[in-house]
Amino acid sequence: MIPHLETNVSAYPMNPNYSITTKDSVQVLKVHNLLNEYINKEILRAVQSKIDDGFSTFVVDLKDIQFMNSVGLNFLIMLRARTIDNGGHVAVVNASQKVMQLLEMTKLLPMFQLSGSVEEAVESISNDK
Fold first, then answer.
1. How many CB atoms lie under 10 A from the CB of residue 105?
2. Which of 58, 69, 77, 102 lies at 20 to 30 Å from 1 by C-alpha?
3. 34-54 pLDDT per residue, tens
4. Which helix (H) or strand (E) holds 98?
5. For residues 89 and 95, is the Cβ–Cβ distance under 8 A?
6. Cβ distance 94 to 117 under 8 Å?
7. Pairing verdict, β 6-8 and 18-23
8. Which option is the CATH number for 6-128: 3.30.750.24, 3.30.450.150, 3.40.920.10, 3.40.640.10?
9. Is the dihedral of CA 62, 65, 68, 70 positive or negative?
């Protein structure tokens, strides 16, 4: 069995707002703040850079996000649109109960693959390929 390859490939290394790592050719985006539109645009630029490099499947780890506003919802919608436009998709993991309620209230929940952990999402995505 080949060990999982995990590398840190952040477009902006050591950024306190997010990190992007690669796990089995899936981009794992761990975000720490989605309440600021400027920060979200910065994260989307990094995501676009990964898409331009040929990676269009992302797992978004929301472990550090306890609640979300319309700016965070817009970020998730934009991320999904960019990945879908490039033949990929987005899985969301570790969403808090408040985030899940918001996604459900706004009817956005069906737009995202939900998984309990990064590993579970990566495995599910890898099996779908």
1. 9
2. 58
3. 999 999 999 999 999 999 999
4. helix 97-105
5. no
6. yes
7. antiparallel
8. 3.30.750.24
9. negative
> Strand 26-31 and strand 58-61: pairing?
parallel
CA 67 to chain centre: 16
Tokens read off for 78: 């934009």
- CB neighbour list of residue 114: distance below 8 Å, 6 or more residues apart: 91, 92, 93, 95
As a whole number of angstroms, the distance between CA 92 and CA 103 comes to: 11
Predicted confidence (pLDDT) at residue 9 exceeds the cutoff of 70:
no
pLDDT 10s digits, 94-125: 999 999 999 999 999 999 999 999 999 999 98
Q: Phi and psi for 112 in degrees, rounded to 5?
A: -125, 140
Position 48 scores a pLDDT of 96
